[in-house]
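User:
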Amino acid sequence: MSFLSATLDRVQPSATIAVTNKARELKAAGRDVIGLGAGEPDFDTPDNIKEAAKAAIDAGKTKYTAVDGIPELKEAICAKFKRDNGLDYAPAQISVGTGGKQILYNALMATLNPGDEVVIPAPYWVSYPDMVKLAGGTPVFIEAGVDQNFKITPDQLDAAITDKTKWMIFNSPSNPTGAGYTADEVKGLTDVLLKHPQVWVMTDDMYEHLTYDNYVFATPAQVEPQLTERTLTCNGVSKAYAMTGWRIGYAGGPEKLIAAMRKIQSQSTSNPCSISQWAAVEALNGTQDFIPENNRTFKRRRDLVLKMLREIDGMTCPTPEGAFYVYPSIHGLIGKTSAAGTLIDSDEAFATALLEEKGVAVVFGAAFGLSPAFRISYATSDEALKEACTRIQEFCANLT
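Assistant: Predicted structure:
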């Protein structure tokens, strides 16, 4: 009898965390490494949010709270959904978890049975399929390549749905591609979902406020109110508010589902950190003025990376509408050999050789379900991005 659970055989460790850890190890060993793997803003958490956390500590708000969020935070989330998305939720329809990942995980654990299918557009965030598998479900992938700007079509969605489909996971703007669906494109997908009443929608709106150019964010329940009763609208404070380490995610959805998620959380982590919850109240209720300023910086960095990567023969890089990632296709580089003699027969081989030979850490595309490609996070300094992209140019120029 094996000591470890057979469940572990169904999942893989997070590739993005693995790349970040590898870059840290190499730096600690004295290597000159530029890490472009982590999906984490390099901005500090705004002062008003930090001050709210300090005030909570001074006021003794350091005890257990309600399992899935303090009333003040649930009210702030309801106000945010109304203000930003035109969605009406009551506090009993809100769940607060330890990061957005826990919210998604709780919902899948509370709803999936063996044989249930979850439709996931690819490229996808690395954790979606493995969370589905951990919950006993089966991920079903819809591939949207560079020729589609990484966005699935209504016909693709319709073809992927079966009588076993329970959820569709929808992430826009996307991690890893930054692709954002317009309201019309969302409507095309929701029209399909209306035809399949057994299918629920789990949105991951974490990058809602990180958008560029003329792109306007839209979430499914906002576009098609008829889907509200089978939609879990998920979000969090990690990205737009530079609060990754505070670990606060949240969702709005039907009360029966929220109650089931609360039950799961009550026997796993219980409440999120009380101090982080009070900080999140200030994040949602306080000034939002820093978000456009941060977005201008992100856009400048995006344009810098796009310009330099598009100078590389054999690499194609669409313009992302949001988030802080670019996802270049390296189809034209497969089959070549690096200066150190490594055959580039996959995007994993490309990323490994790039790290070993040039000290640039990126995440290979197979981890996100679409190859050959790789993900760059441009949530770092302009100087680091310029140097990293110069090294990538040099690495690619030396391929033969």
